[in-house]
Amino acid sequence: MLHSDQALRSFGMRSVAKAKERVALEVSQASEFFTAMFGDVGHQRLYATIIPYGHGEAFPGLIHLSFSTFALNEDGRDDFDQFFRAHEVAHQWWGIGVDFASYRDQWLSEGFSNFSGLWYTQIAQKSSKYYFDQLERWKSDLKARQREVGPVGLGYRTATASDGSEYNLVVYQKGAWTLHMLRNLMLDLRTMKEDRFEATMREYFETYKGRSASTADFRRIAEKHAGAELGWFVDQWLNTTAIPEYRVAWLAEPGENGRYKVKLRVKQQKVPEAFLAYVPVTLQLEGGQVARLRVKVQGALTEIELPVMPAKPTSLVFNDLAGVLADVTMEKW
Length: 333
Ligand SMILES: [Zn+2]
Prior knowledge:
By secondary structure, the chain is of the alpha/beta class. It folds into 3 domains: 2-99, no CATH class; 104-238, Neutral Protease Domain 2 (Neutral Protease, domain 2); 245-330, Immunoglobulin-like (Sandwich), CATH 2.60.40. The chain has 8 helices and 13 strands. It has helices at 13-38, 79-90, 110-124, 129-144, 165-186, 195-208, 215-226, 231-238, and strands at 2-3, 47-51, 55-59, 62-66, 99-100, 212-213, 245-254, 260-269, 276-285, 290-298, 301-305, 313-318, 327-330. The chain has a 4-stranded mixed β-sheet with strand order 1-3-4-2, covered by helices on one side. A 4-stranded mixed β-sheet has the order 11-8-7-13, with no helix packed on it. The protein has a 3-stranded antiparallel β-sheet with strand order 10-9-12, with helices on one face. Helix 5 packs across helix 6. It is globular and about 65 Å long. The termini are far apart. Residues 5-12 have low confidence and may be disordered. Zinc ion binds next to helix 3.
């Protein structure tokens, strides 16, 4: 389920007919994408209906969509609506296809659907702009209310009596961030292939289709494909509210034969000493080469020397691809 934040818009019948075609096409495209990525939900048909409310909700083989999502912009495309519809389609896999075992596992439905909706926009738009813009907006929201909200693993209990929006902020938005971070952690930086993440999602769906699953169940499958223990990842991102801040400096010095040594210094703040992250770093080198690597950051101060670079680095992006839910400030060496 997702509430549409968009202002409700008025529209005429002709535009509804046109919009219905557009929505139907998109719902089927999202459905095809998720089938290819996660597996077959086993429905012959998926029905999408218009409802006179500002939210969407998913049922087996049926999704309710807010009437506002049928009122398209002039160009027929609206990023939020595209994401919103795909979120509801994704529930056929997450929440319906695989149910969540307890309230502590609710992110396996809403966080997964939110992430899947975002992933679909990246494919449909052949652009990552909306994907990263939306993650950035969610990060701002999370940081603004960090002291008020609980961790993802509290499920519906994150909602307070006064408002209730914390549930959306934490379970949907930080839940989506968590899956995005896992995707990034599993990315092969040498080939930029996503085989490990895709295999994780597929095996998780196929294993638990028609049943309930817990975060521990998902973690076991993710660990198998990551080839690494992920308890630290689950604990930090689902059981705490910590968001790190990194102050980063780097220095390149000429070495032998035109090669360069690169020193990197990271000061980690706002999180417990043991907080751990493998942060993606991208260097542009003279001559057009690109170097990608992950840097292990733990503790207040990390000082390392990167592998020797074959040419002079002209820029360094710390936390590339928003690999970690964090703020980064670059400093002079
Ligand atoms: Zn939902």
